[in-house]
Specification:
The chain has 423 residues and is of the alpha/beta class. It has 2 domains: 28-65 and 310-420, Aspartate Aminotransferase, domain 1 (Alpha-Beta Complex), CATH 3.90.1150; 68-306, Type I PLP-dependent aspartate aminotransferase-like (Major domain) (Aspartate Aminotransferase, domain 2). Helix content is 41%, strand content 13%. It is globular and about 60 Å long. It binds pyridoxal-5'-phosphate (PLP). Its cofactor is pyridoxal 5'-phosphate.
Amino acid sequence: MTLADSPALTQDRATAGSRPQRQPLAGRTALVSASETARMRTLGRELAAAGRRIANMAAGELDTPLAAPVRRAAIAAIEAGHNRYTDTSGLPDLRSAIAGLVAEKTGLAWTPAGISVTAGAKQALFNAAMTLIDPGCEVLIPCPYWTTFPTQIRIAGGRPVALDTTATGYLPTPAMIRAAITPATRMIVLNTPNNPTGRVYDAGLLDQIATIARDHDLWILFDECYGALVPAPAVHINLLRLRPDLRDRVVLVDSFSKSCAMTGWRIGYLAAPEPVIRAASAFQSHTASNPNVIAQHAVLAALTTGRAELDAFQADIRTLLAANRALALDILAGLDRVPVRPGEGGFYLYLDLGRLIGRRFADGSPVTDADAVAERLLGEAGVASVPGGAFGDPRGLRLSYAIDGDDLATGLRALVATLNRIA
Ligand SMILES: Cc1ncc(COP(=O)(O)O)c(C=O)c1O
C-alpha cells in the first residue's frame, strides 16, 4: 500500500466528491471534524500493517505494556464477576481513593463528593465544558493547544479565544491574557505539561495567571494529564497547591491514561467544587453512564494495594522518557533550519517549521504548510507525526518520543535527512 491508497486519505477524498446529503444533518456537525491526531495515528498504523517500517510518533500514548497492578486487578475483577452499572460518578471506593490522591496533590482536604470518575480525561473536560459554559461565553486557550479543547468549547456553545504563544516560548504571558479578557470571558484553560509543546508552567507564571483569574472572576480548567511524566529537574506544579485560595474556581482534570499506559481503558476524573461535580455527573448520567466497571476496579487496586508498584512503574517511565528525549534532541540537533524548543514534561517535541514553509522539497514541489511536511515525512522518512494545524498552529509539527528507542533513532535520522533536503 502506498500513502495515496491509504483508506484514511481516500476516505476524505471520497467524502469531498460525494453528492450533498439530502436529509439535513444538525448544524453543530459543522463545529466538529474528526480529530487530526487520531487520523495521523491511524494512517501510521495502516502503513505499518501493510508492511512499511513506520516510526509512529503521531500517537499520544506510551508504547509500553500496561502498569502491572492495573492488569492484575482487572483480571481479578473479571473473575469476581463485576458486570453491573456502577454509580454514574464511579465506585464509591474509587472516588475515595481518587479524593485521597487529589488531597496529596493539592495539600487540601478532599472528599469523594468533589470527584467524578469519567471515561478518560476527555469526558471530564467535555462534562466541564457543558457544565460551565453558556452560549456566547469566551474561553481563553493558549495556542498551540490540544485540539479537543476548542472543539468541546464550541460544542457547548462557547467561543474559544486562542492566545498565540508562538513568539513567547509557547507559554502565555500575563499581558496577553489580560488583553484578551472581555466581559464575555468565563474561563481559561491551562494545560501543563502541555500537549503539544511539552512546556511546563512554573510557579511564577501560574501564580500570575491565578491572580488574573481571581480578579476577573474566571474559572480555570486545569488539565494535568501529563503531570506524572515530568522528569527532574523540572517539576509539575498543581495549581491548587500553589493557590488554595482559588479552590472555588478551579476545576482539575486528570487521567490514568498516560501515567499508567492505559489509554484504551478510559478512566479519568474531574476534581471540582461539589455543585460542578453534581451538574457534570448529571450530564454523564444521560450520556455514557458510569465508566467501564472493570477498568474502575483496576484503577482502584492500583491506587490502594498496588500503589507502591504503580509509583515504581511511573518512575521507570520517567527514566525511559528522559533517555528517549535526550536521544531525540541529540539527533534533532542536526536540523539545519528548524528550531526545537524542548518542553520539560510529557512526551512530545514540537518543531517550528516556519523557516521551511515557502521553500521546495527535493523533488521541486512547494512546502505549503506543516500538513505537506507531515505527509512527506510519512511517505519519504517513514515517520508519522501530527501537523500543527490540529493545534491551531499551521507552522508546527508534533513528535512523540514515547516509542521504542531504535524506532525513534531510525525515524528521527530519516526525518532530519528529509527536512535538510528542503532547498
Ligand atoms: C492535554 C490532554 N488532555 C486530555 C487528554 C485525554 O486523555 P484521556 O485519554 O484520558 O481521555 C489528552 C489526550 O491526548 C491530552 O493530551
